[in-house]
Amino acid sequence: MTLSGVALAASFIPTIAHADVLEKIADRGVISVCTNVNNPPLAFLESSGETKGLHIDLLNDFTQRLSTQLGKTVKVDLVPVLPANRVQFLQQGKCDILFTSLTVSEERKKLVQFVEPYYYAAGPALLTKKGVTFSNWEEVKGKAICSNQGSSWNVPLEQKFGANIVAFQTQQEVDQSLRDGRCAALVSDDSYLQARFLNDKEGIWKDYFIQNLTPFTEGPWGLAVRFNEPQFTQFISSVIKDWNKQGTIIELAKKWGLKPAPFAVKAHEEAIKL
């Protein structure tokens, strides 16, 4: 994993006493990171086997800062996860940090420690076959909507709008079910669906289009750790604050073909005023 195309600032490295997890990382010389490697352009495997993406660029920068903080080189052990098991993997100690597009919710706050400030945000959007149109979210009532197990959009779509969520464990299953006509639409983060078309070199999705309805919510994404890790949490928080100040996430979003989320733009504008 290498960083390119963006000047990532590593000048602000606070001095923090080691928490237990930091001591373990220092002893191992390795940080275990749970992420979804089937989520372009955030993280994905190239044919060469190398993992790339926006999250991977951020992770490289984070690891450089962590190495400076600990006074030794820290390597990354990527632990692949799916939306259905990512929280459980963190809880079970299979990784030190959950570094993926995990939407913050009150329910998830009971399960993991989200680090503030949150670093990005996305809203829900629908992917449908051309000719299938939804003018508002109320029109999903009674319709089969394909999604990932564990997606934060599933509960509100079912409970508030009456959709029939058909959830699958992997993104490939979700995609194939839409193409097979098993659902009227696929719901996902708008940023992910943007990338779907940018990376569709084979024209698989040429007969489909994104329906960006007025979002019923914009879900902030947070990096997550286990509870009672205050020093590790403080270190992560300081890194995110510097990303906001430097505009790192905005530049990386552009690099990977995404329109920067208003959430990220606002965070940068507020950070440079401090």
From TrEMBL:
It holds the Pfam family SBP_bac_3. One of its GO terms (biological process) is amino acid transport. One of its GO terms (cellular component) is extracellular region. Belongs to the bacterial solute-binding protein 3 family. The lineage of its organism: Bacteria, Pseudomonadati, Pseudomonadota, Gammaproteobacteria, Enterobacterales. InterPro entries: Bact_solute-bind_prot3, Solute-binding_3/MltF_N. SUPFAM superfamilies: Periplasmic binding protein-like II. This is ABC transporter substrate-binding protein.
